[in-house]
Amino acid sequence: MRTRGRAKAKSKSMSKSMSKRVSKSGTRRRSKPASTPGGRRAAEIRRRTKETDISVAITLEGQGTYAVETGIPFLNHMLELFARHGFFDLSVRAKGDLAVDAHHTVEDVGLTLGEALRAALGDKQGIRRFGEATVPLDEALVSVVVDLSGRPFLVYEVKLEQERVGTFDVELVHDFLLALTNQVGMNLHINMISGRNPHHIVEASFKGLARALSLAASADPRVKGVLSTKGVL
Ligand SMILES: [Mn+2]
User: Which domain holds residue 40?
Assistant: First the structure.
């Protein structure tokens, strides 16, 4: 399935001060983008609606440490291994209307994590821009390719025969990835090469995403400015 995202390419102000704003949808947000102790790229985002209240803090040059509590154990598991395998330091705190179902919380965690990643990436000077990883987990093999292009586009070619992992509806992974893709402003291709067990397939996808993003966000000393003949990412 190919999904064109909403255009969200405009870069944000990198003000160090806390800022409050109200988006068109009425969402109250507080963000503290790109504090960079020791030159490390980091951001904190809080996103609150009537459905969810989510805080994400991420450091790109981390050690893979994490503190994740979303109220959804399978999502916690995926975000924890995302941090570990991307060597990001990640904190995610989410309180959502899980009594309705997990959809709002999963999608809004994707939005907030994407917003934090975009803020931490800043102006993308000196980075590789492209990253890819093919990750196995037993019978599952998943390829993930990222371009931090500023143009949101998700290709998610993953066929899951079972609808659930435990109580988790695996269709929500697609919604999470779409939200993330739109907010980061990236081109993300996830292609399942083989697989049977949905837990294995989704886990290989998140590990691949972590490795591909980590590579794309890493510095290449040959890159002066941004890696684009257009001059802007
Ligand atoms: Mn697992």
Answer: 2-217
